[in-house]
Amino acid sequence: MSRYRLQPTPAQEQALLEHCGHARYVWNLAVEQHAHWKPGRASAPGFAEQCRQLTQARAEHAWLRGGSIIVQQQALKDFAQAMANFFGRTHRRPTWRRRGRGEGFRIVAVTAGDVRRLSRTVGGVRVPKVGWVRFRWSRAVPDGVKSYHITRDRAGRWHVAFAAIPEPIPAPGTGEVVGVDRGVAVSAALSTGELLNAPTLRETEKARLRRLLRKLARAKRGSNRRGKVKAAVATLKARETDRRRDWVEKISTDLARRFDVIAVEDLKIAGMTRSARGTVEAPGGNVRQKAGLNRGILAAGWGRLVERLEHKAPGRVVRVDPAYTSQRCSACGIVDRTSRESQADFRCRSCGYAGNADVNAAGNIRHAAGHAVSARGGPPLGGPANREPQRDLLLVG
Ligand SMILES: [Zn+2]
């Protein structure tokens, strides 16, 4: 979810408040129906039945009919989800919504044409029955937005949060497992030997960024000039972020298409053992400096890559303990801390295997995934993932 500050005009704000009111009304009706239900009685109406009732209610009440069917039906859907969470014991029972507290509504079936960039700092989102509402374009809006949630906090500030969970990509069914290692010098190494580089700024852009940063250091606080330089820096950084996001989308789709199982390091464990692996502590050449500059960005990009893989290949991503992945020989299995000759090179003293150190680590991650997979009784190898994308039931009314 990425959240942005919404900037409705006063007239739009009235219309948005009306949507909030409808969503709250429908939600509270659902709460009431379920509150009357007691064990032994006929079951409380489910989502489909409630949708039929909503159609009836819209036929009878002009004020409800005047509102958006998407807003109203989605409130029912959110309620159904809240009840499922309650029965799944992950959440408390859904309760009444009150005016002015946690107001909001959700819009689904959003298409690419419903969100657009109007200028460097302003975006627009099309809201049913309201029209184009401006929002602060504080960062790139993710690709493939399928729904968004508009909320109003107690201070009266409006926000829009875009959700873009891509449809799962069917597994190729070849039984192939790939290990992916997060490198420092390159962004990712595959056990197949491929080295993937995340895009960075071009040399001319980097030079410009360095000049701007020097200017920024000299500019007086609060001065006009400082504001301009800051904006120029932000633009360059946003450009890099956008390129990396695009790259993550491309790579995650590619991996989900080509392999049945994708093995990655478990980041929680990796965070603790990373320095022991010697990739950051004993880098070769000027890698250390580069790592310092890029570490944060790379870490963020990596987390995003794993997240998108889990969206696109649900149930096919295996997280493995990264212990020894840099010291173990992926060819013969010997663990020898002297094998990693430098940041980039791995040479096994036992069997003579030599290769890129990150590719060797990726091979070990692939190997560890094989163990993890057989230990839990077989992977979803072959065949498409049997998770149907959830379809929204849209009523015509
Ligand atoms: Zn070896």
Give an overview of the whole structure.
- This protein has 397 residues and is α+β, with helices and mostly antiparallel strands.
- The chain contains nine helices and 14 strands.
- It has helices at residues 10-36, 47-60, 62-65, 69-87, 203-218, 224-258, 267-273, 287-312, 357-375, and strands at 2-7, 103-107, 115-117, 122-127, 131-136, 147-152, 158-163, 177-182, 188-190, 195-196, 261-265, 317-320, 345-347, 354-356.
- The strands form three sheets. A seven-stranded antiparallel β-sheet has the order 2-6-7-1-5-4-3. Strands 10-9-8-11-12 form a five-stranded mixed β-sheet. A two-stranded antiparallel ribbon has the order 13-14.
- Helix 2 (47-60) packs antiparallel against helix 4 (69-87) and helix 6 (224-258) crosses helix 8.
- Zinc ion binds at residues 329, 331-332, 334, 348, 350-351, 353.
Main β-sheet description:
7 strands, antiparallel
Query: Rg to the nearest angstrom?
Result: 26 Å
Order of the strands making up the biggest sheet: 2-6-7-1-5-4-3
Assign an overall shape: flat
* Mean of residue pLDDT values: 80
> Which percent band covers the strand fraction?
15-25%
Oligomer: single chain
**Helical residue percent?**
40-55%
- Terminal-residue CA separation: 30 Å
Number of helices: 9
How many strand elements?
Answer: 14
The stretches of 5 or more residues where confidence is low (pLDDT under 50) are: 269-294, 377-397
